[in-house]
Amino acid sequence: MTTTPSPELRPGVPPAGRTTAVAARATELSKIYGQGETRVVALDRVSVDFRQAEFTAIMGPSGSGKSTLMHCVAGLDTFSSGSVRIGDTELGSLKDRQLTRLRRDKIGFIFQAFNLLPTLTALENITLPMDIAGRKADRTWVDHVIRMVGLSERLSHRPSQLSGGQQQRVAVARALASKPEIIFGDEPTGNLDSRSGAEVLGFLRNSVRELGQTVVMVTHDPVAAAYADRVIFLADGRIVDEMYDPTADSVLDLMRSFPGGNPQTPGFDAKGRTS
After folding, report:
1. Could you tell me what percentage of the chain is helix, strand and coil, using 3-state DSSP and rounding each to the nearest 5?
2. What is the pLDDT along the chain (275 residues), one digit of tens a residue?
3. Taking a C-beta distance cutoff of 8 angstroms, is the pair 177, 145 a contact?
4. Which residues lie across from 30 on neighbouring strands?
């Protein structure tokens, strides 16, 4: 893959006026599965910064390494070489218990599966990570988050009494409630209809703009990526391009330029989304 970023989209160099403070950083990050003939390089010396108060989308064809990158930076998976830092903390130096504590205290997660406990109410699911950590919730902050995601009237309902969009809003509120340094979302709207997905993406974008949150999201959908401030594109385990202030059309046009990135070729659906 030899796609060369245009000068104004040089990876790691934000446009004038953008923050340069870093929430998470990967340096020469590699992830290799197997050995010999079964060896697969999922990430190939990737270096990337995720800046504070910025919404970044990660995109690429199937097998490009986008989910692997997120999982390694989020401390959900080990890496073969290189380094990852969340704030000032180097993940590679942490023991399992320390890594668990870091994920609990500094990172928020939103997944395609809502991962709500069915026996708890919406409010109890939102405050669960803090309850497990033995930390008292900041009620003023939690109430603000709940109002932002529009759940004030549904707090006593259990997941089975909520729509898919409402359940994902609970997951978004849960991720925001503990004031994490960074939120990672892995296809967070994958199980939602277009209207519910747009609502959730709007909440994530507003959390960046209004609350100063940092969000990193893996997505296959150019429409979802258009909610981000920045999109980074992976192919064959490497970052091959970067775009600021994306639109769905500009994202789709760039993805078409990659080898195997034509929406009419296998791996993409009729709307140009990676399968």
Report:
1. 35, 25, 40
2. 334 343 334 444 555 556 578 999 999 999 999 888 888 999 999 999 999 999 999 999 888 899 999 999 999 999 999 999 999 899 988 999 999 889 988 899 998 888 899 999 999 999 998 888 888 888 898 998 898 888 999 999 999 999 988 998 899 899 988 888 899 999 888 888 888 889 889 989 988 998 889 999 999 999 999 999 999 999 999 999 999 999 999 998 888 877 655 544 334 443 444 43
3. yes
4. 81
Instruction: Return all residues near 163 (Cβ < 8 A) that are at least 6 apart.
Output: 196
User: In this structure, which amino acid lies at residue 161?
Assistant: Q
- Looking up tokens 């130096």 gives 93
- Residue-wise pLDDT for 27-52, tens only, equals 999 999 988 888 899 999 999 999 99
Q: Which CATH architecture has domain 53-71+93-256?
A: 3-Layer(aba) Sandwich (3.40)
Classify burial at 140, counting beta carbons within 10 Å of its beta carbon; exposed 0-12, middle 13-18, buried 19 or more. exposed
Sheet hosting strand 40-51, strand order edge to edge:
40-51, 22-33, 81-86, 89-90
- Burial bucket for residue 48 (CB in 10 Å: 0-12, 13-18, 19+): buried
Q: Are 217 and 185 in contact (CB under 8 A)?
A: yes
CA 138 – CA 142 distance, rounded (Å): 6
Q: Could you tell me which of 183, 177, 178 has the C-alpha nearest to residue 201?
A: 183
Count of Cβ atoms closer than 10 Å to residue 201 Cβ: 27
Pairing of the two strands 230-235 and 238-244: antiparallel
- Return the number of other C-beta atoms located less than 10 Å from residue 28's C-beta: 12
Full DSSP string of 31-57: EEESSGGG-EEEEEEEEEEEETT-EEE
